Amino acid sequence: MPLERTGFTSFQLTGPGAHNNVPPMLGTFSPGRDDRLPGLIVLVSTATIGAQSCQNLANLFNLTGVTHNEAERAELWDTWIVGAPLFGVNTRSTVYAAIAADKDFDQILNDAPDVIPDADSNGICDDKDLKAFGVSSNIRKATFFINQ
Q: Most buried of 23, 43, 108, 124, CB within 10 angstroms?
């Protein structure tokens, strides 16, 4: 997919506190939709902030950039620098990542919400809820253990 269709708005290097939205590569740092890659949805099963497992955490990424760009294909990277236990300690957790469907039909993948609706009303958002919301990519799932 060409870069202009990915929803990518600009590079970012951001973080909490004094690093939030400062030069040289501005970007906000908070739970919710990412201002630099606004189609990205990232859910963490053990999230303890906002709407917990239904909270889109994409805007907590610290580094966003283009690593490959051709006329018909772009590769983007988002990186977290973990500095606080927002997802639990000594626990097993699962992360889900996907790109939201083009909900407004503008041909740009920039329609991720701040919070994913809990489609099956079971109190936990996961790949089933992402599918119900609508995604334009595969859903990537990784389970891991968070140490202290």
A: 43
